[in-house]
Amino acid sequence: MTRIIGLDFGSKTVGVAVSDPLGITAQGVEIIRRESENKLRRTLARIEALIDEYQAESIVLGFPKNMNNTIGERAEKTLTFKEMLERRTGLPVALWDERLTTVEANRTLMESKVRREKRKEFVDKLAAVYILQGYLDSLGRMEDGQN
């Protein structure tokens, strides 16, 4: 099995997670801070460096559908980012429904007694972990013939 990079793409930050070499667990790596929503060159360069560092062979990108399953502006921007990632890295990029991952990440941080002002530092990275872990779990179910 090879490593997979998980991304939580936002307007100001990109949360990054990586799988273990066996593809069982996801660990948070970092939060890439974006200077401007329309400037992605540095963000893409950092993601490329992480792909090299972890020798990742694919990417999972959180896909922010609306709760009623429609695609809004944020999801449109995510689709554009997906195309940029595929072109720039040459790696396959899978979309993963990320609805409620940020809510779940915030809940986990609250239950862990992380203070509100500190949560912002962790929430995107933790959301990336949830996105990647959900994807890894689905792969495991497929291999087990449960899907």
If you had to describe this structure to a student in words, what would you say it looks like?
The chain has 147 residues and is α/β, with parallel strands linked by helices. It has a single domain, classed as YqgF/RNase H-like domain (Nucleotidyltransferase, domain 5). It has four helices and five strands. It has helices at residues 41-54, 73-89, 101-111, 116-143, and strands spanning 3-9, 13-19, 26-33, 56-63, 93-97. Strands 3-2-1-4-5 form a five-stranded mixed beta sheet, sandwiched between helices. Strand 4, helix 2 (73-89) and strand 5 form a beta-alpha-beta unit. The longest helix is centred in the last third of the chain and has 28 residues, at 116-143. It is globular. The model has no long low-confidence stretch (mean pLDDT 88).
Question: What is the percent of helical residues?
Answer: 40-55%
- Taken as a percent bin, the fraction of beta residues is 15-25%
Distance between the termini: 20 Å
CATH T-level fold name: Nucleotidyltransferase, domain 5
- Shape summary: globular
Integer average pLDDT:
88
CATH class descriptor: Alpha Beta
Placed side by side, the strands forming the largest sheet appear as 3-2-1-4-5
